[in-house]
Amino acid sequence: MRILVTGGAGFIGSNIADAFVARGDDVVVLDDLSTGREANVPRQARLEKHDIRSPGAQKVIATFRPDVLCHLAAQLDVRKSVADPAYDADVNVVGSLRLFESCRTAGTRRVLFSSTGGAIYGEQDVHPCDETHPERPVSPYGVAKLAVEKYLHYYSVVYGFKATCLRYANVYGPRQSPHGEAGVVAIFARKLLNGEVPVVNGDGAQTRDFVFVGDVVRANVLALEKDLTGSFNVGTGVETSVVQLYDAIRKAVGSDVLAKHAPAKLGEQMRSSLDASLLERRAGFRPRTPLDEGLRATVDYFRTSDV
Ligand code: NAD
């Protein structure tokens, strides 16, 4: 298949691009390298360096005419979305629409969209929550992701798009950037390996559902192969507190450095975990990588990488 992976130079996108290349697909990566790295792009894939909102991106779609759009490119800094909601919407909503319009003209009907569980549901009524939980995003980033899911519904009804929206929990693994505000696993691992003291916001009792990138890749491939449409959670259902996570990373690194605690971040979500049993029922998906194993693989990556 001809597959266009937007954001394919980034953390999750490049791991997905690797999997498509391994399947024998013809992969083009569309990425402006704003947070991604050329070195992440598989050698067998072609990198097209464009912003998803640009005429250059439209041209790539018109000439490549992909069978599948796997869309990950995004502004994914939640705090930035709060500071500048219009910019967030411009990249995440308008940018996505520009891609979908180009796809419509080029005859592309299959879309895999990287959405978010944590940011779409907001503070949950039940833990873990499934896809029937009310959508109450409390950040412009979450609103934008939900809007794109709704637009994809529109495109499916009106233009026959077949779209799978995969709502990820907190993804971690090799190639995650340790330089942003998010990506707590990458940040802790990189700091501990550098001999620095990591900072935990608040008491560290806030919980997240950490899912290994290899499992997220498999969810994308399964969604395509099983021809799934609709929205699906991708998570483990297991809540891990930041303090527990820190200890597990410390063990994987072999460090005895204790974290510093800083004041809690205002408005930070307290708990988050996703029930992915719908994806299990529909596609046989189950996360396979236990946290300890995934953390070891991630720490090993950071030991040998220059990021
Ligand atoms: P990432 O920053 O590593 O990847 C994003 C990629 O998109 C980068 O390579 C970046 O250069 C590219 N990009 C950004 N803006 C662009 C633009 N305007 N035009 C072209 N390319 C652009 O982040 P990631 O963690 O791999 O996230 C990938 C996707 O998964 C995003 O859509 C994100 O919202 C979603 N997601 C991630 C997580 C997580 O825990 N990391 C959780 C839920 C959803």
Task: Please render the helix and strand layout as text.
Elements: E1 2-6, H1 11-23, E2 26-30, E3 46-48, H2 55-64, E4 68-71, H3 78-83, H4 85-106, E5 110-116, H5 118-121, H6 140-159, E6 162-168, E7 170-172, H7 184-193, E8 199-201, E9 207-208, E10 210-212, H8 213-225, E11 230-234, E12 240-241, H9 242-253, E13 260-262, H10 277-283, H11 291-304
Parallel strand pairs: 1-2, 1-4, 2-3, 4-5, 5-6, 6-11, 7-10, 8-13
Antiparallel strand pairs: 9-12
Helix pairs in contact: 1-8, 2-4, 4-6, 7-9, 7-11, 9-11
Summed up, what is this model?
By secondary structure, this protein is α/β, with parallel strands linked by helices.
What does this structure look like?
Helix 2 packs parallel to helix 4 (85-106) and helix 9 packs across helix 11. It is built from 11 helices and 13 strands. The strands form 4 sheets. It has a 7-stranded parallel β-sheet, sandwiched between helices. The protein has a two-stranded parallel ribbon with strand order 7-10. The relative contact order is 0.14. The model has no long low-confidence stretch (mean pLDDT 97). It has helices at 11-23, 55-64, 78-83, 85-106, 118-121, 140-159, 184-193, 213-225, 242-253, 277-283, 291-304; strands spanning 2-6, 26-30, 46-48, 68-71, 110-116, 162-168, 170-172, 199-201, 207-208, 210-212, 230-234, 240-241, 260-262. It starts with a strand and ends with a helix. It has 307 residues and is α/β, with parallel strands linked by helices. The radius of gyration is 19 Å and the shape is globular. Nicotinamide-adenine-dinucleotide (NAD) binds next to helix 1, helix 4, strand 5 and strand 7.
